[in-house]
Specification:
cytoplasm, two-stranded antiparallel ribbon, alpha+beta, binds adenosine-5'-triphosphate, Kinesin, 12 helices, 8-stranded mixed beta sheet
Length: about 350
């Protein structure tokens, strides 16, 4: 059940609050249940009765609920949750939370590598959310924009990769810590590592002209320390055998982009598992965007969705091959950002 699946994922939300970056992605052939796993029933062709709606919820709504539940458990911590939603369609990245000049949602953006070697999307929209309901309102609005087309295998097939990024900023007042001295030392460290300045017109921690939310510069008189972590939730488009899905024209072109980007993802995992000097992140927008989560110090969970049908044996074996490759990747230990915020340990 969806509840049991989330049981395997839930601890990663605690990790997020403990200071780790986290990425959860679903991989599998078209129609195997990736969007169902991430979102739950998500389209009009997939109706669900109100009594089933709660139990059928996927990882994204459950993660939103769990995140706000964990935050409410510690009222001494000021938290800020910002969300961005992008889709990668035909190897182009679209910001699903903003409109262009003609009022059409889904503006094209670029992925860049910063001087520090991190991937970033300049001008990307981040919206502040204050409850699971607000969070899901944004997701549902974005889903209406996501490109879908019917194929012989799946009548409601997603033709793009969906990447939801949650940026969590936690500010902790010093007096909530027993050990003032070590807190002051930490404040010094944070002051040294967050040189950005925020102008008066900008909302603290939020950059209206996109770029990632910037850490709020600390005012020593405010007596707070700050931690910023990132959760990425990725619903990949389905890998697909062109013969089986019977696609032609525009949809065939989409399929070819989907398969190429998934092959690029597999290549990156292969290069990482073989400890190659060059990792080909930039071969696709998908791997470039997810570079820090796949090859960096985030906690990364890849979920495989496979069909129970015998006729999809070849696709199932292909997905399991991808999973084996992902498992062989040994990266640096996930890195924790600063202190625990539970107040119990530092
Ligand atoms: N575990 C499940 N329980 C019940 N229904 C499921 C389950 N997994 C998938 N389904 C159903 O199967 C259909 C296809 O699932 P879904 O849309 O999640 O596939 P997908 O892998 O995201 O496909 P694509 O890559 O083509 O977008 C949907 O109608 C969905 O509700």
């Amino acid at each position: 059940s969806q509840k049991i699946v989330f049981g395997d994922v839930c601890h990663l939300l605690t990790s997020l609050l403990d200071g780790y970056n986290v990425c959860i992605m679903t991989y599998g052939q078209t129609g195997s249940g990736k969007s169902h796993t991430m979102l739950g029933p998500h389209s009009e062709s997939d109706p669900v009765s109100p009594s089933e709606a709660d139990q059928e919820m996927g990882i994204i709504p459950r993660a939103a609920g769990e995140l706000f539940r964990l935050l409410s458990e510690n009222p001494t911590v000021n938290s800020k949750v910002e969300v961005s939603v992008v889709e990668i369609y035909n190897n182009e990245l679209f910001d699903l939370l903003t409109k262009d000049n003609s009022g059409i949602f889904g503006v094209k953006r670029d992925v860049i590598t910063t001087k520090e070697g991190k991937s970033n999307v300049p001008l990307l929209t981040y919206e502040l959310v204050e409850s699971p309901a607000e969070f899901m309102k944004l997701i549902n609005k974005s889903l209406q924009l996501r490109v879908k087309h019917p194929t012989l295998v799946h009548a409601d097939s997603s033709r793009s990769h969906l990447v939801v990024t949650v940026t969590l900023t936690l500010s902790v007042p010093f007096d909530s810590f027993a050990d003032q001295q070590s807190s002051q030392k930490l404040c010094k460290e944070i002051l040294c590592t967050t040189p950005q300045r925020v102008t008066k017109s900008e909302k603290p921690g939020f950059s209206p002209q996109g770029l990632s939310p910037v850490p709020i510069p600390l005012d020593p008189t405010e007596q707070q320390k700050q931690v910023q972590t990132k959760l990425q939730l990725v619903d990949l488009a389905g890998s697909e055998c062109i013969g089986m899905s019977g696609v032609t024209g525009t949809i065939l072109r989409e399929t070819s982009f989907i398969n190429r980007s998934l092959a690029a993802l597999a290549d990156v995992l292969g290069a990482l598992s073989e400890h190659r000097g060059h990792i080909p992140y930039r071969n696709s927008k998908l791997t470039h965007l997810l570079q820090d989560s796949i090859g960096g110090d985030a906690k990364l969970l890849v979920m495989l969705c496979v069909s129970p049908c015998q006729k999809y044996l070849a696709e199932t074996l292909q997905s399991l091959g991808f999973g084996s490759r992902a498992r062989q990747v040994q990266r640096v230990r996930a890195k924790r950002r600063n202190l625990l915020v539970s107040g119990k340990s530092k």
